[in-house]
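User: quick one - fold this with iron/sulfur cluster bound?
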Amino acid sequence: MSPFDPKHRTTVGGQITIALYRIAQAIDYLLRERGKTMRLSPAQIQALLFLRYARPGVRTIGGLAQRLGVTYATASGVADALESKQFVARAPLPDDQRVVTLSLTSAGEMQADRLENILDEIEAVVNGLPAAEQSALLRGMQAIIARLQQSGYVRVYEMCWGCQFFRRNAHPDDPRGPHHCAFVDAPLAEPVTYFECPDFVPLVENREVEP
Ligand code: SF4
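Assistant: Sure. Structure tokens for the protein plus iron/sulfur cluster:
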């Protein structure tokens, strides 16, 4: 039985599955429409937002490829297009000249500012639901995303404060940063903890996340 077939779309599971499909289509539409007005492709939009919010160490062509789920060559093409529009600057990593880092220019930052509200309409609908429905929806979505992540279909990028590897105030007097990442075994300065990280692993349920 397939949820694509309306005759068989009778179970709650099937209806929710097709609802998620429609939401994905709506988001795709929102990205394309915004792209038309700003002369950006959906991949370029995602790249600008990635470069604004990803933790600095992953702002590379390889990191962008991973984020977009595309090949290195495709990500490099996206970076080329943004560079030619003067929204992105490339620079080799000082420690390893083979690694190309990417950063937003001031014009790129302005473009990213204009992208921030793309999902506002969806968030407004969710905010209008009763609190209990929001909680149930969140739990359900998190379960679906966790399964999709296990299957390798999606990668979750989140900030340190909800991560199993985060050690808050592990070395408060360290000039490199008071916190610690047990995944890369390195200190974390406070501002870095608020970026999105592809190595994020959520805390076990019911532990509090304190920003
Ligand atoms: S692995 Fe976790 S603690 Fe380490 S940088 Fe990423 S999100 Fe932060």
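One thing worth noting: The mean pLDDT is 93.
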